[in-house]
Amino acid sequence: MSKRLLMIGYGAMGSEVHRLLPDGMTLGWVVVPEAFAVEVRDRLAGRAEVLTAIDQCAEAPDLVVECAGQPGLAEHGEAVLRRGWTLAVVATGALADEALYARLTTAAREGNGRMQLLSGAVAGMDGLTAAREGGLDEVTYEACKAPRSWKGSHAEQLVDLDAVAERTVFFEGDAGEAARLFPANSNVAATIALAGVGMRDTRVRLTVDPSTTRNTHRIHARGRFGEFDIELNGYPLESNPKTSTLAALSVVRACRQALEPVSF
Ligand SMILES: NC(=O)C1=CN([C@@H]2O[C@H](COP(=O)(O)OP(=O)(O)OC[C@H]3O[C@@H](n4cnc5c(N)ncnc54)[C@H](O)[C@@H]3O)[C@@H](O)[C@H]2O)C=CC1
Ligand SMILES: O=C([O-])CC(=O)C(=O)O
């Protein structure tokens, strides 16, 4: 019998994940804000039940994936974890809020739930978490995207996205600030911080480049293990250029992991 997935959010990433769900996993429920429920119900045309709160879900899903962004994790994360369900998360930037982080970890502990932080648009989180065990001296992260990928974000206050003519750095700071200021664009900064040296000590630089069509992520880590540099040039999703295709694929991978006895 097929395992059943509950998805929080059903935007660009959610629809892509739904399209690519592995055999053996079906979408049972989608949770979206009231204002989007009618539209999402129309799009799904009966293929999954559309809810607006976790307590409306009458059965236990085999897996819950958050594809809703930071407000979605803040709103529904606790209810999922208190029910003892497993929650795979991409809006890791929400965890820069220490109070929310504490609420979710307490809910997971008390409810016997599990929060799985997904690697999203980047690679190397396995190596970084392993490297941390030996001690890390430095972790830096740089993102570079096309102007259209920064549209509608705080970048609009820092750089003229319509006029920018060459690669331009518009933000330098720590991972916590980046995740808070760019909630739809800098979850990766928080993911790297959570896997490495934390929000305050992870240095972040955000850039825009009018000549690129990719979402580029560069990570540098140095510690007792040695050092590594990762550069990932991802294709953005057509339906949302802020979001890399790999981020959606990392959710698909989490679905596959829930099905298979052997996994990376
Ligand atoms: N960790 C990573 O590498 C990445 C993380 N992300 C995160 O994933 C999020 C989703 O990306 P897209 O699908 O491209 O965005 P999108 O804007 O296309 O879709 C967001 C969806 O979430 C829903 N939503 C919003 N607030 C909600 C709430 N309180 N409860 C339930 N649903 C809610 C919306 O109705 C919409 O269906 C981004 O906002 C970002 O936070 C995105 C890319 C990479
Ligand atoms: O998808 C990406 O390239 C990264 C992203 O939006 C995020 O970190 O929130």
UniProtKB/TrEMBL annotation:
Gene3D superfamilies: Dihydrodipicolinate Reductase, domain 2, NAD(P)-binding Rossmann-like Domain. The keyword Transmembrane helix does not apply. GO terms for biological process: NAD+ biosynthetic process. NAD(+) binds at A121, N187. It catalyses: L-aspartate + NAD(+) + H2O = oxaloacetate + NH4(+) + NADH + H(+); L-aspartate + NADP(+) + H2O = oxaloacetate + NH4(+) + NADPH + H(+). Its EC number is 1.4.1.21. Residues 9-114 form the Aspartate/homoserine dehydrogenase NAD-binding domain. Residues 165-252 form the Aspartate dehydrogenase domain. The active site is at H217. InterPro entries: Asp/hSer_DH_NAD-bd, Asp_DH, Asp_DH_prok, L-Asp_DH, NAD(P)-bd_dom_sf. Belongs to the L-aspartate dehydrogenase family. The iminoaspartate product is unstable in aqueous solution and can decompose to oxaloacetate and ammonia. This is L-aspartate dehydrogenase. It comes from Halomonas eurihalina.
